[in-house]
Design a protein that fits this description.
The protein is α+β, with helices and mostly antiparallel strands and 457 residues long. 67% of the residues lie in helices and 10% in strands.
Length: 457
């Protein structure tokens, strides 16, 4: 084995491919949740990948000129980087595969696009005058093309997907089709590279037979189109997810409207009952005109005391929402304790604010409504600010057991799509404003904590 040639393969082929792939890995994982000790895992993983890649270069030295040897090399290197990305990010494997497939498709798209340009240039002798500096000029041309094309690919395909990955419910059936097309493309590209390299003269991708140029360009264009199809299919998985979520949200909004109607109806019924009681006591006071007037006035005062439950937080939307929830709790024997600095929530949109606290309190109400013991029918809500960090803490008792998935409780309702959306929407809104949501159970009490950086829009 010629060690010098193996090192050359390692530097010019293997490491170059990995460097290009990692550029796109970096671009597609910008919005993913990083795992603990991310920096250490990233650096250590790169060192490990580079070390394993040298062994791949030796394999390439012996088998890289065969089709299946070439296929094995690139599939193995891709799988190696997928494992590294999975190590660095706290995401499930399907999401990692989604992002890495997007990265590989983009890298292959840019490389094949360059081959279209390069093969055309070789056909018309544009590079024949480079002489002894050919390798230098080739590298400068390739890296310049790669940089420009990568930026274009990012803005055309990747950036839009990154901004929409906060909700991880993707259509993995369509994603599987995209991965299949990508795999076929890699296999066809390997066949092309091996056999057209054998047909080249002077240097790779330079042909003295015009028909070879046409065939080579046809293969290049076909690969570019296949990679574009993969990128579009991947985009469609997110588009379909967004449409599904929009329909789901509309259904959820209708259900919430029905629930809000019932709450408002109960509140009006409560007001009617209290007004009837007040009218009766006033009539009794007038009819008697004697007796313990002070005692009857106290009874009247107690009857109307419920209307002093208006919550003042410094935020109009929050005031309305919390006041109505307080009235509902009063009617249903639930003790609702609230300390909220609503002025600090001005950076949130009205819809997001109402949805966030509406879902949060409705989930708590659903939990405590199933509890018979009066002393456990309690909900506590605290909204406070410290050092430009806003924290929202909610606590309530519950019956039964809770199962958690991805840090959130999983509903036990049969209608999991509807009930699950309320919980997921909390996380979506929190992520939108750059915050974090955590939940846990301790001694029969459910605790939900939200941290939001102030001023984030």
């Amino acid at each position: 084995m010629n060690l010098q040639e193996a090192v050359s393969i390692y530097l010019k082929i293997i490491l170059q491919f990995l460097a290009e792939l990692y550029v796109f890995h970096f671009l597609v994982t910008l919005k993913l949740n990083r795992s603990k000790f991310f920096a250490i895992k990233a650096v250590a993983g790169l060192v490990a990948v580079a070390a394993v890649a040298f062994g791949v270069a030796i394999f390439y030295y012996f088998y890289g000129q065969t089709v299946w040897g070439r296929i094995f090399v690139y599939v193995f290197l891709f799988a190696l980087t997928v494992a590294h990305v999975k190590l660095c990010f706290a995401e499930n494997f399907k999401i990692v595969l989604f992002c890495c497939s997007l990265a590989y498709a983009a890298q292959n798209f840019v490389y094949k696009l360059f081959l279209v340009f390069w093969t055309a240039g070789e056909r018309y002798g544009l590079f024949d005058g480079w002489g002894n500096s050919f390798d230098l000029f080739y590298r400068l041309t390739y890296y310049s093309f790669f940089a420009v094309a990568s930026v274009a690919a990012y803005f055309l395909f990747i950036r839009r997907q990154n901004s929409r990955l906060s909700n991880r419910q993707l259509n993995f059936g369509l994603m599987g089709l995209a991965v299949f097309v990508l795999g076929i493309t890699v296999i066809l590209c390997s066949f092309e590279d091996v056999y057209f390299a054998a047909l080249s003269v002077v240097r790779e991708n330079k042909f003295d037979v015009p028909e070879y140029v046409v065939l080579r360009q046809t293969g290049n264009v076909f690969s570019v189109v296949c990679c574009a199809i993969v990128l579009i299919l991947i985009s469609k998985t997110v588009d379909e997810r967004d449409l599904k979520n929009e329909v789901e949200y509309l259904q959820y909004a209708v259900r919430q409207g029905e629930k809000q109607y019932e709450i408002s109806k109960d509140t009006i019924d409560l007001i009617n009952v209290k007004c009837h009681d007040i009218k009766y006591k006033i009539n009794a006071l007038i009819a008697n005109n004697v007796g313990n007037t002070a005692e009857m006035l106290n009874d009247i005062n107690e009857s109307i005391s419920i209307y002093d439950t208006k919550v003042e937080t410094g935020n109009k939307i929050l005031n309305v929402l919390l006041t109505e929830k307080s009235l509902y709790c009063e009617q249903n024997g639930i003790r609702f304790s609230c300390m909220a600095d609503g002025e600090k929530l001005s950076f949130m949109g009205d819809g997001d604010l109402y949805c966030l606290f509406g879902n949060l309190i409705d989930n708590a109400l659903e939990a405590v409504n199933g509890i018979e013991e009066k002393e456990r029918r309690v909900i506590n809500l605290v909204v406070k600010c410290k050092n430009d960090i806003l924290t929202i803490q909610e606590e309530n008792y519950f019956n039964g057991e809770l199962r958690f998935e991805d840090g959130l409780p999983v509903t036990t309702k049969s209608d999991k799509n509807y009930h699950g959306f309320g919980v997921r929407s909390l996380k979506m809104i929190v992520k939108k404003y750059g915050g974090e949501l955590t939940a846990h159970v301790s001694n029969g009490v459910f605790h939900l904590n939200i941290i939001l950086p102030l001023g984030r829009k």
